[in-house]
Amino acid sequence: MLTQFKQLLTHYTGLALSETDHDKAYKFLQSRLAELKTPDLAGYVQQLTANSLRADQEWQLVVQALTVPESFFLRDKGQMHILQQHILPELIQRNRHQRQLRIWSAGCSTGEEPYSLAMLVQKLLPDAHEWDVLILGSDINDKVLAKARAGLYSRWSLRDVGPEVLAYFQPAQQGLLALDPDLREKVTFRRVNLLQTPFPDLEINKIDLILCRNVFIYFDQAAIAAVVEKFVQTLNPEGFLLTGHGELYQQPLYGLQTRLYLESVVYQRSAQSSSRSPAVLPDLPRPAAVPTLTAPDIAKARIAALDQAYQAGDYAQVLAIAQTLLSQQNDFDAHYWSAKAFASLGQYPAAEARLHAALALNKRSAACYYLLAHIREAQGDSQQATELLNKAIIADEQFIPAYLELAALYEYDEPLKCQQMRGQALNLLQKLPPKQYLEEFAAHAQDLILHLQ
């Protein structure tokens, strides 16, 4: 009977339930059957297929149980660079006469992506108040949309951002950060089932830019094709579609052409109304012979490959590289980067297991304690997050991110401790070269000093 449920799930949502999610699905179904006092799965499937408000509410429970609402601000720096330097400036210039800009974040989860887009638009379009600007965030999950509208985020959602982004936030209760109300008003949220909701419609039409990233990795191939066809009809001629890396591989993208940037591929609707296949990318030249590398060179190349895949949001590639390394030896870097990938996917138990394996190899890794603290914070356990951040400082007294994270946790309830942590972080930053780049904050030391002062 699980097969029938999987087929229904794919038909209604596009989601293809993987084998690794079977246990989660079984537990959810057992819980619902017991609560509804339904004797078997056939009866539950019948409830889901009914044309009723109750069926809609039940579907919400299904998607909330079986989807992973994981996102963060300015996710995938490479793609954000393309948007800021190429796509958005081109759209602004193209639309300057009619002063209209329409952007859709499809599958927006808890809202970090559409709010990130709002920040970019505000930066690139100072006279946005004189334009008709739509920034729409949609998701199938009502629960994540409610969180998006609230605009309250943990520091985990703000990892890898600099002072320019942090300036949009103020401390709120329970260690959370509240997004600037003016920016919140620039984004509209709406429930959309990409497969079942009819669009284009009165609101979702003539879109200049659609982002649908890290959504299709969970979709059935036929569902991807159906949604992409709807996207093409919804885009303006020469409008853009940006997906996660490799998500449209081997898909028949009729009506779309490709633009190839160093950081990513971007799809663009043809100027003509007639459908056409995407342009074929040229063959890349064969690489030159690779010189013999020393052990330190190999280690650097390995970390660079893991970091590049992680920054691109290609978590499957991170896990693949790490697994290859672990098949050869019990490797700290492989465990640590696997943990980062699992955490970004919202698979916190797997992330914790990898972090504990990494700590078994290096008990003084402040970065591992720091990531564990973020996971606890994302799960709402501020007390244990605080304990883990203190462990990070014990492991490395010069680990600046832990001081700043503790300051953020203390800011609302314990302002004196907050000041102490910020002061210690400032002292450490002032000892660094001004131009030293800190990956954790995507900023130079001098910029962080200005922010703290």
Automatic annotation (TrEMBL):
GO terms for molecular function: protein-glutamate O-methyltransferase activity. Keywords: Methyltransferase, S-adenosyl-L-methionine, Transferase. InterPro entries: Bact_Chemotaxis_MeTrfase, CheR_C, CheR_MeTrfase, CheR_N_sf, SAM-dependent_MTases_sf, TPR-like_helical_dom_sf, TPR_rpt. Residues 1-247 form the CheR-type methyltransferase domain. It catalyses: L-glutamyl-[protein] + S-adenosyl-L-methionine = [protein]-L-glutamate 5-O-methyl ester + S-adenosyl-L-homocysteine. SUPFAM superfamilies: Chemotaxis receptor methyltransferase CheR, N-terminal domain, S-adenosyl-L-methionine-dependent methyltransferases, TPR-like. PROSITE patterns: CHER (PS50123). Its EC number is 2.1.1.80. GO terms for biological process: methylation. PANTHER family: CHEMOTAXIS PROTEIN METHYLTRANSFERASE. This is protein-glutamate O-methyltransferase. It comes from Methylovulum psychrotolerans.
